[in-house]
Every structure is written in C-alpha cells, then in structure tokens.
Amino acid sequence: MAARRIDAAEVEEALAAPDLVHASQEHPDERTVIRGRTSTGRRLKVVVLTDDKEYVVTVADQGSEA
Asked: Which one of 6, 60, 61, 64 has the fewest CB atoms closer than 10 angstroms to its CB?
C-alpha cells in the first residue's frame, strides 16, 4: 500500500461502499476482488481473503492494473 501511495483510510472507504464484488480469477475459492471508490473519487481494486474480508491481500488503483 505504501509503495502505491494508498492509505488505510482509502481502503476502508472503498470497502465500505463497493461498486463490484467478485471471486478472484486466479484463486476463486480463496480470494475476493472488491472494486470501490474513495470519497475523492479514487478507484481502487482491493483483494481480500474470502473467509476473512478484513484481511487485505493487495490493493491497487484500478487505472494502473496490469
């Protein structure tokens, strides 16, 4: 998160009101992908554990996805 200049408050905002939630293509039984926006309009993709949605695996700006 620090390397991508995304802080915890932004992740919490994106998770609080997701635009889209779906299973990970690479790990469908283990991880869930949540796409949401911050109050400033920043679009984030947050990957969490399916069984523990408070455990963030990774997060990135949606515009910078590979």
From this structure: 64
Contact status, residue 43 vs residue 37, Cβ threshold 8 Å:
yes
Opening angle at CA 54, ends 45 and 20, nearest 5: 35
> Is 16 within a domain?
yes
Q: Is 65 helix (H, G, I), strand (E, B) or coil?
A: coil
The alpha carbon dihedral of 50, 55, 12, 35 has a sign of: negative
**pTM of the predicted structure, to 2 decimals:** 0.87
Following DSSP, what letter does each residue of 28-58 receive, concatenated? TTTEEEEEEE-TT--EEEEEEETTEEEEEEE
pLDDT one-digit tens code per residue, 4-59: 999 999 999 999 989 999 999 999 999 999 999 999 999 999 999 999 999 999 99
Domain that holds residue 33: 8-64
Q: How many distinct structural domains can be found in the chain?
A: 1
